[in-house]
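Why should sequence recovery work at all? Because a backbone constrains its sequence more than one might expect. Tight turns favour small or flexible residues, buried strands favour hydrophobic ones, and helices have their own preferences. The token representation captures these environments compactly. In the example below, the structure is given first.
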């Protein structure tokens, strides 16, 4: 099945929405800012363009959707202030799958522009924001059009669910092959869309052989429910083919080298705790042992509920997430494995 048919973050601004449950994604964007600023500095100093075209691929929805654009504005403002030059116009393109909640993003634009006027005044050039819906595994922009491509926590999602058969090694190979195909396609199309010496700053999950993914405790929950006769094994098998792959650092480097369109400038790694922003609500009755798990569950639900909803009815989905809060606490958080191992890569078009 094509992933874009079912993959979408929970829209709107409700309790389970992505807009209100994405602090880990925000933390990853903030951690990438120094590398983004360095790329913009090199880009600007090599040509002092009047307009910089910036594309955020996999922007999703909610306040994080405009955060990379703001970080680019702030970086350019600092760069040009240091050089005593007028900042360029920034044309920012927000890309995500067509079913993403762009409406919520655009409702926040007036407050975004008001913040720009208040904090930057007339010192920053104009900023124009536009949407570019579609899969980033396809061609999205004209030839030699973009200056910088940015992507955070998106490229580990595969374009389709791999059909790995047999033992664990065969399944892993199927996922790796799909990731290589997808990532190579992404690199090829971006090389066509970027200007010569164009930049990319990419953050994706990677496998550090220790930290978990939310899919691990989720699969534990589903297998428990199979044994209790609450869900069908065939449906859980569909979930085992979850379309996400955490590549190793070497795998990412080798794919970039084989595809041949970019040079790797810099590689960094960092971890983002699943508990970013968590405050334990201790009261006279004591702390809820599973408060951390419930907190993580809301964030996981905002991202992955569309997959479960495609397999189960509403009551079953609710039961899965109720059990998940307990399982993720006991099996992951209590063992110190609850963090996203993140790979940050800076690339330059050859």
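From this structural description, the recovered sequence reads:
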């Amino acid at each position: 099945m094509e992933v874009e048919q079912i993959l979408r973050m929970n829209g709107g601004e409700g309790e389970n929405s992505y807009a209100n449950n994405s602090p880990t994604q925000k933390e990853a964007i903030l951690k990438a800012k120094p590398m983004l600023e360095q790329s913009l500095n090199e880009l600007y100093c090599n040509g002092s363009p009047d307009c910089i075209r910036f594309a955020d691929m996999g922007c999703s929805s909610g306040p994080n959707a405009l955060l990379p654009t703001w970080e680019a504005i702030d970086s350019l403002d600092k760069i040009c202030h240091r050089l005593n030059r007028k900042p360029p116009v920034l044309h920012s393109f927000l890309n995500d799958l067509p079913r993403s909640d762009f409406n919520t993003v655009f409702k926040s634009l007036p407050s975004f522009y008001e913040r720009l006027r208040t904090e930057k005044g007339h010192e920053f050039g104009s900023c124009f924001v536009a949407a570019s819906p579609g899969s980033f595994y396809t061609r999205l922009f004209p030839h030699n059009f973009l200056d910088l491509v940015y992507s955070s926590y998106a490229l580990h999602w595969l374009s389709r669910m791999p059909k790995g058969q047999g033992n664990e090694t065969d399944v892993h190979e199927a996922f790796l092959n799909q990731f290589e195909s997808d990532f190579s396609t992404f690199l090829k199309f971006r090389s066509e869309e970027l200007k010569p010496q164009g930049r990319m700053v990419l953050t994706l999950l990677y496998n550090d052989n220790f930290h978990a993914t939310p899919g691990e405790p989720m699969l534990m929950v589903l297998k428990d429910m199979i044994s209790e006769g609450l869900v069908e094994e065939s449906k859980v098998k569909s979930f085992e083919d979850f379309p996400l792959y955490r590549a190793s650092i070497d795998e990412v480097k080798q794919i970039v080298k084989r595809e041949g369109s970019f040079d790797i400038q810099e590689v960094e790694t960092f971890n983002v705790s699943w508990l970013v922003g968590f405050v334990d609500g201790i009261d006279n009755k004591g702390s809820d042992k599973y408060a951390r798990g419930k907190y993580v569950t809301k964030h996981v639900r905002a991202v992955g509920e569309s997959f479960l909803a495609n397999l189960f009815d509403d009551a079953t989905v609710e039961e899965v997430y109720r059990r998940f809060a307990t399982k993720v606490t006991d099996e992951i958080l209590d063992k110190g494995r609850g963090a996203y191992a993140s790979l940050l890569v800076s690339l330059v078009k050859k």
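A few observations help interpret the result. Confidence is low (pLDDT under 50) at residues 282-286.
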